[in-house]
Write a structure and sequence with these properties.
Order of helices and strands: HHHEHHEEHHHEHHH
Distance between the termini: 56 Å
Radius of gyration: 30 Å
Shape: elongated
Structural class: mainly alpha
Number of helices: 11
Length: 275
Amino acid sequence: ARAAAVALRDTQRSGGEREIAAGERELHIPPRGRGRERGCDRLGGKTILMMWLSSSASATLLSAIVSILFLITCETTAQTYTMPWWHPSLEHIGQNEIAGPSTHSAVDNLLANIVAAHMDDDDEGHDAFDGARGLIRRPDSYDNDHPNLDNIFVPAPPPSGMAASIGWYHPDVSASYSAGARISATHPSVHAMLAAHLPPGHPNIDTQLLNPAGNPLPWWHPPLAMFVSRRPAVAFTTSASAIHENVDTAFVAGRSISLHHPSVQTMMASVLSSS
């Protein structure tokens, strides 16, 4: 799609009649003025800088500083679009030509002004994003001078309070899932903990955790570690007689404690409630 668009633009520049292939669309770019005003463009900024530096009367430190500030202002005033915090890197998607899902929401109307703000005066147009032949479903490589998409499409910060609090002893969630370790049937509902922060249509997390091997995470999924907040470890010791058997050995061997043994629950109550 991108190659076809480039060919069409070349035809137009050479004076030929421009035609759009069946099914292909270009993004509707608003005209210069409201919604497309950048104040400057990269070409204009560079031209002014060279004029300043090439002039014997103006090639001073002050003129160079003014020109550099002009360039910085030009680059930093370009519009950005805030994506959902969980959205994968668009630069990675573009560079690797990874197709998006057919259920992706329509974005042409949302992004028209953003695209316009990053286009130079001599740019002829931009391919549409939506539809079966749009860039989301049929991504194509772009020119080397194309702006870095991650500088334009910026994910929002994760919601505060999103991470579920877990004990210091909890297994590493990412490593456990990657290893296919099933969650315990008595584990609290993780889906309920994170439901308020999940995107629409997200699969039930508890079902996924019961069969991680059968539900591998896609490459773009955020790391699981960002969804948990591990509480700091606590230290606990209690005195025991010199003849007391090793507690780990006894537990692994399945030996129960004596009915006359002091309550271990009572001894560790403060630790259990805070860890």
